[in-house]
Amino acid sequence: MTENNKEDDMKIHLLIALGSTLMFSLPAAADPFAEADIKLGGEMHDKLCVACHEQKYGGKDGSDIYIRVDRRVNSPSALSQQLTACTTMLNLDLFPEDEMHIAGYLNKNYYKFK
After folding, report:
1. DSSP letter for each residue of 21-74
2. What is the three-class DSSP state of 113?
3. Does the pLDDT value for residue 92 go beyond 60?
4. What GO annotations for molecular function exist for this entry (predicted)?
5. How far, in Å, CA of 16 to CA of 28, rounded?
6. What is the C-alpha separation between 26 and 85, in angstroms, rounded?
7. Long-range contacts at 66-75 (CB < 8 A, ≥ 24 apart)
8. Which residue from 10, 24, 32, 65 puts its CA 20 to 30 A from 51's CA?
């Protein structure tokens, strides 16, 4: 085998390894709240968020806040930050994983961030 063939083989193996790494990392990147318990997040949302959102933004369930044209939340990190802000303002005493469950619920049903 010539030196050029060895280099070509190494390049091919490197490309295969890189492609495999990217391929297997894509599913994890597909859902920013993959660890969220969607059902629990929905229950927490209904209990803790809906009444305030109905009062401030209208709609039968307060969901107008999520679908309005001028919404503040335009990324997964903005959604997490907004949940933390609401938790703090309303003194809800939620754990970060509770906020993640709510974020997962909201993302699945309204935002659909990847």
Report:
1. HHHHHHHHHH-TTTT--HHHHHHHHHHHTHHHHHHHH-SSSSTHHHH-TT-S--
2. coil
3. yes
4. electron transfer activity; heme binding
5. 19
6. 30
7. 66/106, 66/110, 66/111, 67/110, 73/111, 75/113
8. 32
Termini Cα distance of the chain = 46
**Residue listed under structure tokens 């109905």:** 54
Region class of 113: left (phi > 0), else alpha (psi between -120 and 50), else beta: beta
Tokens of 11: 């390049």
User: How far apart, in whole angstroms, are the C-alpha atoms of residue 25 and residue 82?
Assistant: 27
Which two structure tokens, joined as six digits, stand for 30?
A: 């597909």
Q: Which two tokens stand for residue 57?
A: 């933004």
Average pLDDT over residues 91-113: 96
